[in-house]
Amino acid sequence: MTCTDDVTESKVLLAEYDRLKEEQKTRIGFRDNLLYFTLAAATAVVAITTQSGQSRLLLFVPAICLILGWTYLANDEKVSAIGDYVRDRLGPRLGELTSADGAVFGWEVYHRDIAGHTVRKRLQSAVDLFTYLVLPMVCTTAFWCSPVVQPLLLLASLGQTLALAVLGLQFLRRTER
Question: How far apart are CA 9 and CA 148, in angstroms?
Fold first, then answer.
């Protein structure tokens, strides 16, 4: 008897499922912590700006939100892709192999059908847009309204605004899925 005698396609698929769910859990935790870290970093920048009176420091908030926002989106995309893969590929394949009557990994479908899922998803998108788009734009606008706006910093803030618009569109695109 070789060690491959115990390896079946079903066991391999279940091992893949376990690894994917572990990765998904890790990514969800990381993604959610990014939101808290972003809010803490933005609050710190606003506090330092208020204490120092240097409005140009507000331009750190859009930079922070851009970097962490893209990271948040990348993790969110992977979380969703794992769910899609388990629901659309892995579950059906395991179902075929085991001749299961119902859906294998039913939670992947069931949790989407729970009452209020769409509302919760839209509310989360609103929180995401506030954190990664509205908050940095408020800081940018405050910078623009300050008495000492240097041309180079104004140009940088316009570039940040364009990048934030692209980020906002990516968040909206994700919401529609």
Answer: 67
